Amino acid sequence: MEELITTDINNEAALIPTETEEKLTAEITELWAVHTDAQSVVKKTQQELKAIRQNLGERLYAMKQILAKPGCQGGWSSFLEQHQISRTTADRLVATHAMSLTGTTGLIKPLSDEKIDQFVEAVWKRLEKKLGTKQAVYAFLVRIIAESGLANFKFTRGEQHGLAVVDPDGESAHQAAAAAAPANAE
């Protein structure tokens, strides 16, 4: 490999580029230009891909509205299979489009009280084993409520520590539990 030739001009070392350095500089300059161009192409391609996904989601949403109804005998699944479209991808694009229309997915329906009871029972069996103590259960519930985003809850302090939860519709958790108790007793 060639070495740089140095000369002493006014007591300062000056570097004179060699043929190798000039060649590398030219290659770096060219590659940097290609790199910069490629980045702008990628950015443009990502924007185009986003637009394609939005259009595809809109069309798939419309098709699902037609084919995914009772009595269509799996029309949505058949359509996707026939066109070699992944159901997971199609459903994600549909959900994204639905969210753009309504601010929600439009696919999730509120759970009935019966389903909520089933869910709580199934989850509680696992949690009870993991949490172990009443203090751990309490700490877990405090964190779950805080994480849920329900603004209407408060912690009481003093001799009796506790947690008061207010239903978003104004009903307290105690009232809701009392109302649900006869239903659960049956």
What would your notes on this structure say?
The protein has 186 residues and is mostly helical. It has two domains: 20-102; 113-185, no CATH class. 65% of the residues lie in helices and 10% in strands. It has six helices and four strands; from the N terminus they run ββαααααββα. Strands 1-2 form a two-stranded antiparallel ribbon. Strands 3-4 form a two-stranded antiparallel sheet. α1 packs across α3. The termini are far apart. Mean pLDDT is 74; it is low at 182-186.
Report the count of strand segments.
4
- Rounded Rg: 32 Å
Number of helices: 6
Proportion in β-strands? 5-15%
- Quick check: average pLDDT? 74
Order of strands, main sheet, comes to 1-2
Sum up the overall morphology in one term: flat
Kindly state the percentage of residues in helix: 55-70%
Low-confidence stretches: 182-186
What composes the largest sheet? Answer: 2 strands, antiparallel
Straight-line distance between termini: 90 Å
- The number of domains is 2
Secondary-structure element order, N to C: EEHHHHHEEH
- SS content category: mainly alpha
Counting copies of identical and different chains, the oligomeric state is: single chain
